[in-house]
Structures are given as structure tokens and as C-alpha cells.
Amino acid sequence: MKRELNKIVGLRIKRARENAGLTQETLAELADRTKEAISNVERGVNLPSLETLNRICEITNVNIGMMLEDTDRSPNFVDLKMQIDLHLLKLTENELKLLLTILDAISEQRKDRPI
């Protein structure tokens, strides 16, 4: 379970870093950590301290809660959700309303299908 958590958090940090347009070196410098430390976290070798995680979230403009939610899901599910969450951060209010309408339509169609 711990190894899975490390991988999930590491993948989320990597996605947040890439979304922010940062290299590992740049993130390490801004977070006052080494490139190796960032690499180890992203690969799931180590978990960052809460202080480091908070700093990374500030730098990448990601809510710390996004890094820790749904950690009981598969890494693939978590990666897909993180990518969606990062896209959502860039949408305007009108775009979010449109997306909600689309999601409501998908949910309505699913009600008609047997599982």
C-alpha cells in the first residue's frame, strides 16, 4: 500500500510540474531541494515531507488536496483524474458550465444502459 501511495503522489507531482512547464531541475531549485530528491519523489521511491509537498503545490499552483485524494484507486485511474483536474484549472467559468452540461448529458445516457 505504501509503495502504491508513493507512486500515486509521485505521478501527481510529475503531472503538476509538467503542467506548470517546469523541469525537475527548476522545481528542485524553487523548492530548495535537489534534482535527485524530486526525481525520487516522482518515481515513487520516496514520499515528500508535508513541507516539501506544500511548497511544490504552491510552486505548481495545485491544491494540496488534489495530491492526496483518491489514493485507494489504481494508478491509471489516478493519473487520468489528475490530468482532468489540471485541465479544469485552466477553464473559464463559462467553459466549466459547458463541461458540466456535457457531463450531465453523459450521466443521463448512462442511466439508460444496464451495467
From TrEMBL:
Coiled-coil region list: none
SMART domains with a match to the protein in the record: HTH_XRE
Q: Which residues cross the membrane?
A: none
Q: Which UniProt keywords are present, listed alphabetically?
A: DNA-binding
CDD domains named among the record's database cross-references: HTH_XRE
Q: Which GO terms describe its cellular component?
A: cytosol
Record bears the keyword DNA-binding? yes
Give the Pfam families listed for this entry: HTH_3
Annotated GO molecular function terms are:
DNA binding; DNA-binding transcription factor activity
Top-rank taxon of the source lineage equals Bacteria
Outline the extent of the HTH cro/C1-type domain: 13-67
Identify the PANTHER family for this entry: HTH-TYPE TRANSCRIPTIONAL REGULATOR, METHYLPHOSPHONATE SYNTHASE
Name of this protein: HTH cro/C1-type domain-containing protein
Which species is the source of this protein?
Answer: Methylobacterium dankookense
Q: What is the lineage of its organism?
A: Bacteria, Pseudomonadati, Pseudomonadota, Alphaproteobacteria, Hyphomicrobiales
